[in-house]
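This part of the workshop introduces the protein records we will be handling. To make this concrete, we reproduce a full record directly below:
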Amino acid sequence: MNPESKDEHSGMEIGIYTLGDIVPDWGTGKSISARQRLEEIIEAAKMADEAGLDVVGVGEHHRLDYAVSAPPVVLSAISQVTKQIKLASATTVLSTVDPVRLFEDFATLDLLSNGRAEIIAGRGAFIESFPLFGYDLDDYDALFEENIRLFQQLSAEERVTWKGQFRPSLQDAEIAPRPFQENIPMWVGVGGTPSSAARAGRLGTNLAIAILGGEHIRFKPLVDIYRQAAKEAGHAPESMKVAVTGHAYISETTQKAKDEFYPYHSNYWEYFNRQRGVNVKMSREDFEQMAGPETALFVGSSQQIIEKILHQYELYGHQRFIAQMDIGGMPFKQVAQSIERLATEVAPVVRRETRK
């Protein structure tokens, strides 16, 4: 895999992300170890960097069926085997982390990586971090907003005086180290909640929309709400970026991609639905509907994926697309092949078409 030259490397940013799930194989019922999962995550990031992709994201969970509870640690390991790719959390559960510790961790990552650190902040798919770290789930919204505001102040000032509702006050506190970048980019991850999109716009963060299915047009109102809230808050439109994140798998043909991906996609959802006490199986008919040409499950040939990304671009005008490929116990060999197609067949076309 050969990355594009810097002259060609413009237009929409394309990347990958992982949540590090350790789901039992759908055939054997066996799971790989957390150590192997972490090794594969680092290898995938190295491949993505060498192939010229723009960003890699690593999510946060605090469960035995996930391998990553500390994204900045994993991203720091990735930073030492990569050169150019941006390093993002995907997501940081911002309501249950101390913003000062978070800033110090990502400022350190930023120094180690020569300015490649980013944060995507969100609630996450599970709520286990609230009792684990001693927070009340009823305070979710207030915690989230307070922590974003504090993080933004920590980023802007080397010495901080601050008082809030949940964290001990700061009085002329030195915030160290300072990152390589002037500001560590922050994105707020949202599913389908308009108020979350509006908050991201009001606070001046970037917006990352998790789109795991459904028709593309369904999510346009979130982008519109975000941009309108940012405008009303006085933020410069050109500084407000939008990303789309979602499940993806690419093969030689669309039919082959669906045949290969279905067992892992259905395995992923069935496993995690069971964790929530819901025993629902995904039929092949349901999957075919989810993976149709007008829907936002990115499964198909490279051309099919290109068409879906560009269709969304017409609707949202977004700046970034990042794909989660390693779900449901999929073997690393298949993940690697899909990453290669994303980098060498999809990304060049999407960048060219969105460059203007």
In short: The longest strand covers residues 242-250. The domain at 13-354 is CATH 3.20.20.30 (TIM Barrel). Confidence is low (pLDDT under 50) at residues 2-8.
